[in-house]
Amino acid sequence: MSGGYGAAGRRGATAGTSGGGAVGPGRLVVGVSGSLASLAALRAAAREAAGTGRPLLAVLAWEPPEGEAGYMLRPARIWAENWRREARARLDRAFDEAFGGDPPGVADVERRLVRDRSWRALCATADRPDDRLVIGVRGARWGLFGRGGTARRVLTRARCPVLTVPAPRFPVLLRTRLRHARAVHFLPGGSGRAAV
């Protein structure tokens, strides 16, 4: 993998890119959680970034498991740092699962961790009118009114255009097997041979 994280959690551009060059208007801000819907959104955002030259900014929001209010009652920096490291690993794993590293053809990629609720982090990050926010949604009704209502909150509060990308649908019998499959199971040559 090229590049590395700086103090602010920024990931360097892919190898062979320069700091200058013409870039299209605004950024493509994509919410990443590691779910199938967010991986589909990440791939869609990367395709658009590669085609338009816009920067790609992947955002993973995280909070302490007991929430910020619970953390304030018993703050523990060591645990907070551990949760932040886990969030960073999840963000890197999403890129590995979607592309095997950095997305091909995208010159400017940033991976950002934000300690906040996901809808609030996405709306605050995509704060320019020429940005485009890309989010994955699940279910027949896009999961807008499902648990947490992240998509619904983003759609009602975003200050830029929002692209919703549905999660891939699989037959019911394959869902359990796919839940246990790994990326190696889908490589050509069948070296991993999943039972899917």
TrEMBL record:
Domain UspA: 27-166
Pfam families for this protein: Usp (PF00582)
Region of interest (Disordered), residue spans: 1-20
Listed name of the protein: Nucleotide-binding universal stress protein, UspA family
Organism: Streptomyces qinglanensis
